[in-house]
Structure formats: structure tokens, C-alpha cells
Amino acid sequence: MSSVLFASVVRVRDGLPLSASTDQQPTAALQASKRSLKLLSRRLSALPDRCSLGAAPSQRIHFISALGVAYLLVCEDAYPAVLAFSFLDELQREFLSTYERARIETAVRPYCLIEFDTFIQKTKQRYNSPRSLSVRLNLTELQTELRLRPPHQLSERDFANGGVSTSAEPVHTSLSPRSHLGPVSVTGAISLLLNFVCGLLNLVRGFHLLENTLMEDGEGSFNIMVFFLACSTSFYQCSLLVRQCHWRKAKALASLAVVCACNARLADTRTAWQLLFHVGASIMGAAQVCAWQPAGKSADYNV
């Protein structure tokens, strides 16, 4: 039967190998696949979050990446893709629950987390043993995901000239349980609406003041910039509420600080209730950004 041959964990930003399975009797074909995997590791930051690559004859490389870490495996070409990605998903969940982000980011030596090999080996043995592999009963969801949004198919030519070609097939993002935001809550929707209204109000006030300034002596031009800054910041908070990005919470708190500073500057042009509305909407938005957690897999998605 086809099987998993090799697996490794790599840091995405620089391709540093953190852990890998130990080969007892590596073949020439596996060595060739591992060379392709090493080359692939250096390109991870420019690749989609979930890919497949034809490696040595009758072998294939699959990988997923999330939160700056990639999980790669080499398997025989006939090995089912749904089992390969289930294997990688299990490695990802165990690795992220075992090691803190700071330890991953500060690692400087290759294979400094080699003790994770113990878990890789146990998992590989289980996935290579059909009789003990009970995951076949729990793969309906993953099979549907792979059918609707298949992994990006790479080829050797994608790495020619140091670049990555993505024209052959559409790029699909990873379906990692930690890479997507959860569904919008009622409070989140209200916060989104309030911040959008604040942005529109600031935009209208800014244009109105600009019109008056052009007709008069130019006094108040600084307030115009403050209104437009407050407007753009409110709209930016809206974007933070609906999309995932790096340093999301820090950006939300910085946006809140900017809104507070703008309203302090505009205190003479607004009533206390208007100030409370604008600042309160921004506080609510920042709180929602900080509280909104990434979505997880459903309870029956377990290996």
C-alpha cells in the first residue's frame, strides 16, 4: 500500500527546518524528493497556504502553512490526498499546542525542536497502517473542502529563475482552523455599522468645512485634515473587523488612539454627545477586534 515517507516542520519566513521525521533506509527517490522539499522550503513565503508538488518518480509533496509555520510531507503518488492533508492538519494542531510562538520565532539552529519527531513518527505509523487508521470515518468535511477548493498544484518550473508561477491554477488559501475569523456576532455587526456611520459623518463634516474654508480666509484648514484622518481611521477599523491580518489587535488599539486624539482636537466643534458617540463607537470596535477569535474546525473534525 502507498504510504507517507517523510514529514517536516519548517518556519515560513526563512525556511528554517524546526523538526523532521527520521529516515531509517532512505532511497534515492526519497533523497531526490527531499531536495525538492528543501528548495520548496526556501519559497514558502511566496506560495499559497496549501499546495501539492510532483516530486521524484511516483512521489508527491503536500504542505500547509499557518501562523508562520509550514508542515510538509513526502508520500507515494498513490497516497490519498485527503489522508495526506489530514496528516498535516494533525501535525499542525499538535505543534501549535506544544510550542509557544516566541520559541518558534527566536529559533536559530536547524532542527532545534527535533523532539517533535516522536509525535511525527507515531502519527506516520498510524497513517501507514490501514487497520488502525480510523480517520477514514471522519474525513467527510475535509473531502468536501478538497473537492470545492483543491490545493494549488505546483510544478518544478514554478521554481525556475527563483520565482513562483501561479497562472496555471487559481490560488486557494489554507483552510487551517486557525487562519480564518469566526462568523460575525450581533455586537460585531453593530460595531461595524457604528464605525461606518462615524466615518461618513467625519467625511461629510470634512467636505463641508473644506467648502467653507475655500469661500473664506482659509482658517480651519487643520481641522479639515483632522476630519479626514478621523474618517479614514473609522473606515480602517471597519476593515479590521471583517478581515484577518498581522498585528490586528495592535492596529485596532492604534486606531482607537488616533480617533481619540482627533476628537480631542475637534472638541470645540462637537457637543459632548457627539464626542461620546464617536469615541464610544471606536472603543466598541477595538474591543470587538480584540475579542473576535479565529474560527475552529467543527467538533467532529478529529483524527
From TrEMBL:
Pfam families in the record: Longin, SEC22a_C
Family annotation (InterPro entries): Longin-like_dom_sf, Longin_dom, Sec22, SEC22a-c_C
Matches recorded under CDD domains: Longin
Span of domain Longin: 8-120
Membrane topology: Single-pass type IV membrane protein
Domain of life: Eukaryota
One annotated GO biological process: retrograde vesicle-mediated transport, Golgi to endoplasmic reticulum
MF-aspect GO terms: SNAP receptor activity
Subcellular location: Endoplasmic reticulum membrane; Golgi apparatus, cis-Golgi network membrane; Golgi apparatus, trans-Golgi network membrane; Melanosome
GO cellular component: endoplasmic reticulum membrane; Golgi apparatus; melanosome
Job description of the protein: SNARE involved in targeting and fusion of ER-derived transport vesicles with the Golgi complex as well as Golgi-derived retrograde transport vesicles with the ER.
Similarity comment: Belongs to the synaptobrevin family.
Protein name, entry field: Vesicle-trafficking protein SEC22a-like isoform X1
